[in-house]
Amino acid sequence: MEAFIGGTLTLFGNPLSVLIFFCGLIGGLLFGAIPGINMLTLAAIFLPFSGLLSASDAIMFYSVLYCSGTYGGAVTAILFNIPGAPENAPTAFDGYPMTQKGEAGKAIGAAVICSAFGGTCSVLLMMLATPLLAEVAVVYVGPPEIFALVFFGIAVASSVGAKTLWKGWLSVGLGLMIATVGLDPVAGIERYNFDYVYLMAGLHFIPIILGFFAVSEVFVQAEKRVRGIYDMPKFATGFPSVAEFWKLKVAVARSVGLGFFAGILPGIGATLAAFLSYNEAVRWSKTPEKFGRGELEGVVASETANNAATGAAMIPLLALGLPGGALTAMMVGVFQMHDIEPGPLVFINSSELVWVVFAAMFYANIAILVLGFLETKTVLHLLKIPFQYLAPAILLLSTIGAYAVRGLPMDVLVMFVAGLLAYLLRRTGYSVAGIILGLILGKLGEENFAQAMQMVSYDMWVFISRPIVAVLLFAGFATIVANLIRALRGLLKGIEP
Amino acid sequence: MHTWNLLRRSVLGLLVGLLGAGFAGAPAAAQLPDTMAKPGGFPERPLSMIVPYGPGGGSGQVSRAMIQGVKDATGIDITPDYKPGGSGMVGLKTYMAAPADGYTVLETIDDATSAYAIGKSKIHPAEDLIPLVISQITFSQIYIRGKETRFNDWASYIKFVKGRGGKSTIANVSGEGSMERINMNRIAGHFGFKVQQVSFDKPGQRYGALKGGQVDALFEQPGDVRGFLESGDFKPILTLLFDRPSAFAKVPSMKDVGLTFTPLMRFRGFYINKNAPADRVKYLQWAFQKGYHTDSYQAFNKKKFMDLIPSFRDTEGARKLINDTMGVYKKVYKEMGLVK
Question: Which of A231, A259, B10, B140 has its CA 20 to 30 A from that of A87?
């Protein structure tokens, strides 16, 4: 407690530190809300300047940016079906349908509260047990366990948003296939790039997400407008009630746990956290069929988990020097610019810095709550913009976002092709969410499976004899079999599975 | 063994050449003129530097350090433009598509050389590009956990690996044909053991795998794991150099364990398109080489253990280093059946 108070006093005792805190906070909210141009863009822009700041101010900026940037992407995901970052993609699954139902205020309100809550819980856990948790994570969870976790996640959520089980599985299959484009994760062998060098790097998931969500939505709404059935989203600022949140208390607690768990694993982070949490929300729900159609719990699960991952991702970084994602990797560079090597010695040699970071992340999550509410009141007015102005703006913003990821014109083309494909698939009952799930988890799963196989010398018995792997694989297969049995029973009763 | 004997013979001749390449062309800061007239006012605006990797890794870090060095030495502003993907190929290809007017420079590493040697790239780093300076050359080491109880030095590690019958694991980065894999294959060939090389692209996963005991050892360069060495989490058991560098005086070198092949080095440098105007190229050669000699850049290199072996190559030294390394890669790839 004394250390936390010390960190707080250091943070707010210096006007420059306070200014940097708010720059990180507002920068994250703004950059996080713009697709493609996300918090990483701001982080990269700021990198050369971080050498001019003190070590604690520089690291603090990135920590605060990480918290607010992860939340920032939820707003556009909910309002316009444009996830600001991959970790906000599951938020759009239900957030955007809620907007269409006139519940945008409720969805954004839930995102704000859950982001702040998930982030705060995560920071508190981080303060309590960073070194211990970091050690446990690297000892007990390696590539085999991460692959098993991904497999389980895919098995659970494979039918989300699809009209039938088969279409859900086919959607995930398509996502898995798209994930194989580019160099394979082990030997660097080229796959499906047709000698085109830019495809060697694979299809980046940001342009595909933008195409699947934003562009296809513009097409769908345009079609409705042409047919004269277009309904402008209803403007509503009603926030979720305490009773509604209380009903979701288990989902929130589960999402904090899952988000924290995914965040603590080196190289994983907020994206897997959001997808896993969403998947579990579907699995445990008594009404899973409502997911993908505007279920508040979907937004709650995704946004709680992705922010819970932010504090957790700092644990391996600070305690072991292991970055969990792109932003934490940049933070390693910032540490080194100040002659500090993140790792166990940071707690001994730079404990003041560590506690300034802890305090800053704690207050950043509190501030998200306040600023998020103010932002919500403002951004909801965007829904009043008529479609003929909004649609070109969404397409323009998405085009910029797709291009900005890597500066490749190919990505803009990929976005529009994905948009067209998604437009056609949505008409036929396939799941856009399933394709995204397959794409994102497929890349992660393949990489970890390949590493796992190398680690066990391609001996499947050794692989499945790891206890966590065995449990997760069993649970995944059991889920698939249970779904299959349910579908076949339905078929016998004449219901399309 | 025949393959490796052949290889050993074929590369021994390159030993002096590789490690000594460019020493003659490594002028001290004093040999470079303090100032140089801007050719026709060039540059009139900030330069752009394409970095074919992400901002957090070794290339991102050396780029920022060199950008600062050039700024300190000449006042020229350079903006980094990260283009990761395809093991550096996306950035390289993007660079070649940029106007050859001197306003865009490229940072790249030895991967560009190995990619050309194996046929993945058609861009020869010493012929299609002009090296402005190579500013980092570093050796690799093999690390084990500081708390490892199954083995504690090179001899006991070899014994352990042999006893595992090819099931021992070592973490590294990159795929088939990479500097890491070739070096490790040569070591395994010499000692007659098999080891499972596990490729982790992300540094966090790679170091976490060793720290958590998911793999038995790690192949890496010392500057990248300095923090783990200082904390005692990692311990080097072999240095891939013939002589022990001063900072690792207690760690056996290749000579100590009887390895005779020329180790492939990791090198990072800065390049410009060969079609850029000659006067601008000359000016940028001066600017980047001055940048290398600045206090800020030297402090950065020291922090990364880049002062243990000569890290500087001017244009001619860099060409020799690249061409010699290319020769080694081609020979090895041929022996491995990866190229004809």
Answer: A231
